[in-house]
Amino acid sequence: MTITARKPDPIDINVGRRIRARRRILHLSQSSLGQAVDVSFQQIQKYEKGTNRVAASKLAQIAAALGVDTSHFYANDPSLATSAGAAGFGEAGQEIIAETTEEARLLGAFNRIASPDLRRNLLEIAERLAEGKPKR
Question: Are 62 and 23 in contact (CB under 8 A)?
Fold first, then answer.
């Protein structure tokens, strides 16, 4: 008998990435999140990799611990879209998922800026840097 390894479902991978991104934005460790939802940090690792599926009840607990609605974990998942735009947000409203520590730190810092003017100024600087045009 041949045993084949089960590949994680793309939806499970996406949900796990979104859990990880939100956890990192909030500067929570896997252990802290695990304690909040009564699972081990190893289980959180498996959820974040998509190797273990998150039960609906556990996803609700994770969402509450991370301060989001459960729909947050499915937003913009192309595998759930049935037509253009069906995934939840248009391009202008698309939510960004932090894939690296630097991205998570940047998003977290940006979200902590209270002043709308400072946020707008920082955004303009970032856009100019991305375009390769220095600010005058």
Answer: no
Task: Choose among 95, 108, 26: nearest CA to 65.
Answer: 26
Question: Which parts of the chain register pLDDT below 50?
Answer: 81-94
Give me the number of domains the chain comprises.
2
SS3 102: helix
Burial class (CB in 10 A: 0-12, 13-18, 19+), 37: buried
pLDDT at 87: 37
Does the residue 4 lie in any domain?
no
d(CA 26, CA 74) in angstroms, rounded, equals 19
Domain region containing 119: 100-136
| Residue 82: per-residue pLDDT | 44
Could you give the CA distance from residue 26 to residue 33 in angstroms, rounded to a whole number? Answer: 10
State which H helix or E strand residue 66 sits in: helix 56-66
- What's the CA gap between 97 and 76, in Å, rounded? 10
Distances (CA, A) of 123 to 30, 89, 106: 30, 20, 11
